[in-house]
Task: structure prediction
Amino acid sequence: MTQKLGDEKKEQDLAKIQRKELKAELAENYARLPRRPRNRRRIVTFCVLGIIVVLVGTIAWLVLQPSSTQQPVSGVAIGTEAPNFSLQIYGGSGLGTTVNLSKLRGHPVILNFWSESCSPCLSEVPYLERFYSQYRAKRQFALLGINQADPKDDIATFGADYHVTYPLLFDKGGSTNARYAVTAIPTTYFIDSSGIVRSVFVQPLTPQTMQQGLSSVGINI
Result:
């Protein structure tokens, strides 16, 4: 009986030793495994956020760029002759007379397609008037507003209410709008003194885009 108990005691001690050896071996193997940086998840998160910020910034930059390009999506191509027209003035200066584009050769021309029912146009007209009033005395360019969407009799009233002094033309039937392929307003064409289209803006003009347009037709103000 004493012998049997002694044998069991030896087996238990041996099992304990084996368990300790196994634990030590496992601990040693675990220690040899390559450790991942504790902040790896944080680094990955920052990288993803950085990429998102760059993408958002790039998109915002593209959106904020002037929609004028060296070649408009539609309309008269940059570098080609501007289609001629003869339209009567219904508002602004020269009321009742007719403007023929070809007779304006020798001076750059700014053609602004607008409508009284166009909210961006209404915010643009006061800027155009301030600009025209400031520089018209130098006679460096002609500024023409072309309207085909509103009743012609409303153009005179609009011009008076907004104190517009540049000519407001009425495009009866929309033939001029069609020749210039105007699909959105306001649209502004900058035509040089030889009658060639040099730039187009399909958005309300700003001092920046106005300067770009004028520079394209050789005017530095």
Remarks:
- The chain has six helices and seven strands.
